[in-house]
Amino acid sequence: MIEPQAVLAPLSRAALVLVVTVHDGDEAASRTRDLCGDLSGLVRSVGFRDLDAQLSCVVGFGAAAWSRIFDSPAPRRLHKLPAIRGEKHEAPSTPGDVVFHIRAGRPDLCFELATQILTRLSGAATPVDETQGFRFFDFRDLLGFVDGTENPTGDASAKAALIGAEDPDFAGGSYLVVQKYLHDLDAWNRLPVEAQNRVIGRDKLSNVEMPDEVTPSSAHRMLTTIKDADGNEIKIMRDNMPFGSPAAGEFGTYFIGYAASPTVIEQMLRNMFIGDPTGNYDRILDFSRAVTGSLFFVPSLTLLDTLGDS
Ligand code: HEM
């Protein structure tokens, strides 16, 4: 029986995303593998101190790192996230060998686990980004909109986020795209709420979708709705977290998207940045700048344990 990592864990009050690059050489690779084998135990040790807080940690690997760390074939669809350049906005592709997506009901558990992980990787890996996210009121992002409503639930969430029989060697795994966005909140807050509603395609206060007839084709929800050849919607699982520092004037959304295939998220990104049709880009980007972007493969727990032992 293949057990996935905690990809489908519910949206939490606190999250910490850690992206590291692994140093060259056998020693660094072997220390990273050892950590993979011990990660479940570490999560249990930290998480048991408050079981109600439901600490979880998902670990994923970038294309450049896989063959350096593991002596095992890479998943077919794992590659470097391509940078996407639209006429006005750009989604960068930034380095990332290993990602840890840590979630819990309390920030201290996330903090402690990240500390333990980095202690284990000291001298073997360098952190390139750490983002501590928090729940903002009723799942609002810092633009003030409820974020996550259209996430699939139940069986549909597993179908959206987990690899199935189409790639049996990697079944129960997932592809994860993370991107850090910084918002220009002064400019956003100068926009009347009716105009903000048209950018997202929902009503800000009530969170109800605007009727399709009056929703601009550039609205975020229109450009991120992807359909297959039969007209069925292809969903992803999003775990976006607000983050920031009022003193530093930093207000952001950390985009975290899981999918059974990376092509779905990449299509959404092309629609947002290049536009559909070209030029009809996502107006959320006039107020939000992507400053990082990486793609990772998240093995099933079953495969992770095997890789950790190798
Ligand atoms: C600045 C960054 C972003 C913000 C603030 C943001 C915010 C939102 C909000 C408020 C919604 C509507 C409610 C909901 O269903 O969650 C939404 C929907 C959605 N977003 Fe984003 N988002 C961001 C980036 C992205 C990116 C990068 C992707 C994919 C590559 C994405 C994919 C989606 C999808 C698939 C939906 C659901 C569309 C639907 O079925 O109606 N978002 N987002």
Automatic annotation (TrEMBL):
The keyword Metal-binding applies. Keywords: Iron, Metal-binding, Oxidoreductase, Peroxidase. Residues 5-135 form the Dyp-type peroxidase N-terminal domain. This is Iron-dependent peroxidase. The lineage of its organism: Bacteria, Bacillati, Actinomycetota, Actinomycetes, Micromonosporales. InterPro entries: Dimeric_a/b-barrel (IPR011008), Dyp_perox_C (IPR048328), Dyp_perox_N (IPR048327), Dyp_peroxidase (IPR006314). Pfam families: Dyp_perox_C, Dyp_perox_N. Coiled coil: none annotated. Belongs to the DyP-type peroxidase family. Its cofactor is heme b. It comes from the Bacteria. Signal peptide: none annotated. The keyword Signal does not apply. Residues 140-301 form the Dyp-type peroxidase C-terminal domain.
